[in-house]
Write a sequence for this structure.
């Protein structure tokens, strides 16, 4: 089986990576979204098997013990995310390339495992205040200030890893950031 390519989008929560991933999926029919597993609760409008595979903590840990993950991470305390190996192979078997919208350490783990056929893009914002406003807007009904502060502290840590990615996109103007992402991915997929 000839392996396809993988595009890894990472960045702090609230950086815009999910919005950019939706844009890329709409522009490139040869891209297929990799559905990750998580132990977090399902949010409004999310669909099991489309947005995430929502697992219990015990089920997630069982999959870890059985080496079923290509990568996994305890992103926040008692909150796990991971990519199943069979998800990767299923997409490649269908002759498509994979798009990941993934946490920073998970993205770097995938980059290390598949260095020759992966492109990694780090999405960041130019200030913690902007990120805080985005997080408050996104989570105002579901999370308290402590949860948002945990995400902000993690974002500061994650920004330190930006230099390890192939590209860093500063998401100030979403339209421009999308254009840059489209160009980078196009060049990678079509080897320009």
């Amino acid at each position: 089986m000839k392996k396809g390519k993988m595009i890894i989008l990472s960045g702090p929560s609230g950086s815009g990576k999910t919005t950019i991933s939706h844009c890329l999926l709409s522009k490139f029919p040869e891209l297929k979204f990799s559905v990750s597993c998580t132990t977090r609760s399902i949010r409004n409008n999310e669909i099991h098997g489309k947005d995430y595979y929502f697992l219990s903590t015990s089920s997630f840990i069982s999959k870890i013990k059985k080496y079923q993950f290509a990568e996994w991470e305890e992103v926040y305390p008692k909150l796990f995310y991971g990519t199943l190996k069979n998800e990767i192979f299923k997409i490649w078997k269908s002759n498509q390339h994979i798009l990941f919208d993934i946490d920073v350490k998970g993205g770097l783990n995938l980059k290390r495992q598949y260095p020759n056929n992966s492109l990694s893009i780090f999405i960041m914002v130019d200030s913690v205040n902007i990120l805080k406003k985005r997080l408050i807007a996104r989570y105002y009904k579901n999370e308290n200030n402590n949860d948002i502060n945990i995400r902000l502290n993690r974002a500061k840590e994650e920004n330190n890893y930006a230099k390890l990615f192939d590209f860093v996109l500063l998401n100030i103007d979403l339209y421009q950031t999308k254009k840059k992402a489209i160009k980078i991915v196009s060049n990678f997929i079509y080897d320009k």
